[in-house]
Amino acid sequence: MDLHDRSAETDPMTHTGSSAPPFGRALCAMITPFTEAGALDLDGAGRLAALLVAEGCDGLVLSGTTGESPTTTDAEKSALIRAVRAAVGDRVPLLAGVGTSDTRHTVELARSAERAGADAVLVVTPYYSRPPQDAVEEHFREVADASGLPVVLYDIPGRTGTRIEPDTMVRLAEHPRIVAVKDCSYDFLGTQKVLSRTDLAYYAGCDEHNLALYAVGAAGYVSTVANVVPRHLRSVLDAFDAGDTEGAARLQRRAVPLIESMMASGLPGAVTAKALLGALGLPAGPVRAPLRPAGREAVDGLLAEYGRLVAD
Q1: What is the pLDDT, as a whole number, of residue 2?
Q2: pLDDT single digits (tens) 20-58
Q3: Binding residues for pyruvate
Q4: From the annotation, which residues make up the binding site?
Q5: Is this structure's pTM higher than 0.85?
Q6: What are the sequence ranges of the domains in the chain?
Q7: What is the pLDDT of residues 242-284, one digit of tens each?
Q8: Which of 20, 63, 259, 298 satisfies CB 3.0 to 4.6 Å to 294 for a cystine?
Q9: Which residues are identified as catalytic?
Q10: What is the CATH number of domain 26-244?
């Protein structure tokens, strides 16, 4: 079982890519545990966070997509940061998702995250209203100016409907607190253009791209699949940094069936990650509506792919 396999190396290694890893290399987009009644499970969140850190995660992203941020309240977001901080101390950075479709609300959440003890904020492109690029740029600048925390831009047009275009990224990189990008753009050329023109630290936000982006200079990944196999995903980067590129590629390919079953099966990653964690007896709980839990057949399929990966 990957979450309890202590055989992998846990000391950080130096990546020679163009982006410095300001938050480490191997970050988990952590689920938000709920009780069976649907309330925030702060004890479970602390236990899961401590386990993920013990199993090799360099940092944790709270209240992101996988953390079901659209369905948690502002007060719950702050409470989650405090609970996880109490569980892991200062061992790893905590990044708090604060992005909304409303600039004013996002600014408020960024300030609340800072007060709660976050080390950085993850800010998604404003969604639904589909602002033009000059408005997108101004949104991020206002949020970056609102607190003393570093900002990670979250580029995920498949969910927001709006890209952060490469030229916009380049301009935003001039802001002293905008330091990194979680990249779910599926624009490999555009990512390399920004890497070549800025010092922004790129983190792969889609698990199938973890190694590919790392190989061209990204800092690491922010992974949903790391909720259940943190050591295996970290081992891919460890192998690459050790010069074993063939081994890194082999390890990445071995993870593909689980990545596909969790991220490309028609179910959101929050649903599949919680289904697997729950089946493994780890803190998770239900998802909040409008999400629905995975059915029995889906859970069996997820467990089968998980078992094949950790058994190898």
Answers
A1: 54
A2: 699 999 999 999 999 999 999 999 999 999 999 999 999
A3: 66, 222
A4: 66, 222
A5: yes
A6: 26-244
A7: 999 999 999 999 999 999 999 999 999 999 999 999 999 999 9
A8: 298
A9: 154, 182
A10: 3.20.20.70
